[in-house]
Design goal:
The structure holds two protein chains of two kinds.
Chain A (H helix, E strand, L loop, with lengths): L1 H15 L6 H10 L1 H22 L3 H21 L2 E2 L4 E2 L4 E2 L6 E2 L3 E2 L4 E2 L4 E2 L10 E2 L4 E2 L4 E2 L8 E2 L4 E2 L8 E3 L4 E4 L17 H4 L3
Parallel strand pairs in A: 1-4, 2-5, 3-6, 4-7, 5-8, 6-9, 7-10, 9-11, 10-12, 11-13
Antiparallel strand pairs in A: 13-14
Helix pairs in contact in A: 1-2, 1-3, 3-4
Chain B lengths: L1 H12 L8 H10 L1 H17 L10 H19 L1 E3 L4 E2 L4 E2 L5 E3 L3 E2 L4 E2 L4 E2 L9 E2 L4 E2 L4 E2 L4 E2 L4 E2 L4 E2 L7 E4 L4 E5 L11
Parallel strand pairs in B: 1-4, 2-5, 3-6, 4-7, 5-8, 6-9, 7-10, 8-11, 9-12, 10-13, 12-14
Antiparallel strand pairs in B: 14-15
Helix pairs in contact in B: 1-3, 3-4
The chains are: A alpha/beta, B alpha/beta.
Chain lengths: 203, 191
Amino acid sequence: MWSELAADARLSSRLRWPDQDSSLRRALIWLRSRGLLVLALQRMSHRYMQRRAQHGWTLGLILTRLLLALTRMPIMMVTKCDVGETVDIAPGVYLSDCGFLILGMARIGSGTLIHERVTVGPRAGDAGKPVIGANVWIGPDCIIYGDLGDGATVLPGSVVSIGVPSAAVAAGNPATIIRRQFDNAALRRTLARDIDSGSLAPG
Amino acid sequence: MSSYWNVVRADVQRCVSGKQTPLRRAAIIGVHMGLQAVLVYRFGRLLSASRKRVAVWPLLPVGWLLYGLAAFGVRRAYGIHISLSADIGAGFWVGHFGGVEIMNCRLGQRCSVGQQTRVGHAEQAHGPQVGDGAWIGAHARITGPVRLGNGVTIAPGAYVTRNVPDRALVVGAPGRVVLTGYDNSRILPHP
């Protein structure tokens, strides 16, 4: 859990200060990043859930349970985020500090960026949870019900109910695939949202 | 007064069922932010309906103070703003939390809304009129003096600015009816 959180802090610090990453900044970012707070709570809940299923009750688990019961609602109120405890989050994921995330997917791959006001969950009445691949960029105000492949990009304000293949760009409400091969490495380097629309033209 | 309690009971029964133990039911009410927001709204409506009952006037200042504090807390901490200008039928359900704004509108009985939903607008006095049993998905927006029929289903992210017939499924921005005769009972939340 700690190494995963360290990877999250490294990614957050790299996104915030692209050229000035340092261990001091990585430590300081814990004080000001709400996204990291959400990830810390989720990783703790997830680990608690796994350990609880394996070992039954132990003293450490009872104490963790008490800690989670006391901190869950305040953290939800401060961050406005609810990330399900069953979500399997790979190390090194960025969640927006602006919050309003309701996430109920099966898995998130590493290097994924999720901006604010995003809902991910199963279709209503359908139990299958979507899988988010690695290195995915999800813009603000998106709703996602379909699987996203590795390196997929979801432009802001999209409602994705289809599966998005690897390295594709989805946009619109309801979303369509507007481009097949797109390298989102430039988008994932900083938190700037000024997308060069020329580079996204169907090609 | 008994009708008021029936309304509150219908709201609570959307989230908890009689089959659960009392402790479990209390725990659900304790963490269900949407239900708490609806209960605060019902209390505010009770206060505004008591305006003409002279017998309860001495209690009203305390009641409005409590309502003001609770509504402020719900708005800031949960991000759920259910204005008293909204007229909402019994059995209202708010799923999740954050960015919900419901004002200047009329919702029928047993309606369900998701997170980030906006129904009505602060600057439009005559807002949407929604029928019974509507399911309004997350991030949906309904604005303008539109009429939505009974049992309509607004897909997540839809933007509704036109009238919608009974039991229709609306998708997209701008919202268009893709299906009529859609049965949303399968997707309604059950306690």
